[in-house]
Request: fold
Amino acid sequence: MRHIRLALLGLGNVGQAFARYVGTNDGRDSPKLTIRAVADSSSGLVLNPIESLPTNIATGQPGLDLLTHALSLRLNVVTVDKGPLLHGFEALKEAARTASSGFAYSGTTGVSIPAELSGIRVFEIAGVLNGTTNYILNEMQERGLPFDQALLKAQADGIAEPDPALDIGGWDSAAKILILAKSLMKGRAELSNVSRTGINAGTQALIQTASKTGKVVRLVARARESEGQLRLSVAPEIVGSESRFFSVRGTSKLAIFRTDSGEITSMSRSGRDAIAQTIVDDVTRVTAGPVY
Reply:
């Protein structure tokens, strides 16, 4: 049985969920995990660091510098912080290759990147990538709640953050589609290149239009190649029963990857146990061999 020692950087909701998950892991079905150090942004890094600091989409700091330093020490790194990948994706990947260190970030994209995509050209990605907004939209459509009440319910249920701006403003979905595009598609883009429309009280009018024909509204993130450039967007869309997004309810997420070999779908559930399992899967992979 492999025994993996970890350092946990950040002890917010995600970090605490992961720590609890590790505490129940006895290693019978997976490697034995032990958290040997817990640090904040001012502390040093040891062992195999897992970074779960709050996302800073403006600069990616302090996570970006901390991850870069960890990789320079030839440590294996797992992160669920989107900020560093938004501002230093290529540099972090190169640092991992140079150090022959494992580097994984499945927790930053909303859905896992299917292994079948390895070596296949992906020319378009579409996804419902934010569980909070999907939950709010479902409450508005299935229970008839106005936006403000649906948001309050999401907060009361521990789904929406006290400050939900990144979610309802479409920033979280924009970050996730950008990271997916950087991982799988040619071309370069920044967060400022993502056309972004979130959800708010005004979305009710779109919901009413959709309901007249038995359709629903989903917040859909899209990325596609066009003349060597990436075109990225996030916006509420009306979808019918023929769409795979139609049945994505609650906090679930789903992405469709269109490739030269056809469509590949990835679906995930939300929640702290789910993200904890995603981190464990990434830790297992990076400690088994280099992952870039």
